[in-house]
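Request: Give me one sample?
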Amino acid sequence: MSLDPIDNDPQLQRWRLVLGEAGQAALAGGRLAGAAAAQDAALEWLYGRDEELRRRGVRPAGREGGDGPSIVTTVDWLDEITRLFPKETVERLERDAVERYEIHDVVTDPAVLARIEPNESLLRAVLRTKHLMNPEVLRQARRIVETVVRQLLERLATDVRRAFTGTRARTPSRFRLARDFDVRRTLRANLGRYRPEERKLYIESAHFFSRTRRHIERWQLILLVDQSGSMTGSVIHSAVTAACLWGLPGLRTHLVAFDTEIADLTADVDDPVELLMKVQLGGGTDIGRAVAYGTQLIEQPRRTIVALISDFYEGGNETRLVRLVAALVEQGTKVLCLAALDEQADPVYDRAMAQRLADTGAAVGAMTPGELAAFVAEQVGR
């Protein structure tokens, strides 16, 4: 029987895994063994490459292996973490691998792609690295794009339907539709007709909800999406949002991606997978040029919403950008300047430029796709 205290103390093992090799000195010579040693090796394979910790002396320049199996390739590592950790931990490790340490073979190696479970982090990595992929790898990577986009569409479609089809109001209606049957009000109104001996309630008057439905007239929604590397999440959700809004009665949706060049992707809005495979992330940013292009698409200024989705770090002429946004506001166009359009809505952006845009009368902030759909529905239904 082992007398090593770390073997019989799960909490001590967890702290050792969190601290890595740097925590070994606090364990009085005790060492991890078995599954815990294998977990430590898997974590060290990833986080051991953190140069900042090495510079601070938190992690040694070299590390002796434990009792766990040797981890050599990314494929081996993925197999190991899937075996050793719960799903939530695996997803976090994969996300750190592709986003924090830029281990590109996670999404460019066919053997890795065949093993990995699609998620949003991997989708972002595919979009950043697809220019490195040969045609065969790109076909496999497309599976990740298709799977994650389908999941996002299913989640957002519910919010869009709710926003645009209206909700039942707690007011009477003379239209007797089964779907609008008001159970509670009907029961209260007919309680005097309950027959205890028969255990039946006889309904003399049935009640129904009224259903409010927004009257939709012809509007335009113009999404101008910054495709610089920091905006990858917003690019993905903009494509999915545009696909959900595409074809709604009374609404014409445009999707324009930009860096220093303009790419009008409206023709592919109904196929967000194909659209995302065409996006080219990175490069400089000329936001003013994108706003000028969007202005040319407007048919009726007072029935148009322009959503500028960017971190507002303008690489072009800042004064021109502010002037263009101010002109849109003055002509009655609804202008949204969104520093993020994704499910977290937690942006990093140029606050000084955002304030200048807000001073023109534009609405500045961050939204989830569902919140944007609700905003569009409110405007269109007025």
The chain has three domains: 9-135, 183-213, 219-380. Confidence is low (pLDDT under 50) at residues 62-70. Residues 9-135 form one domain. The chain has 16 helices and ten strands.
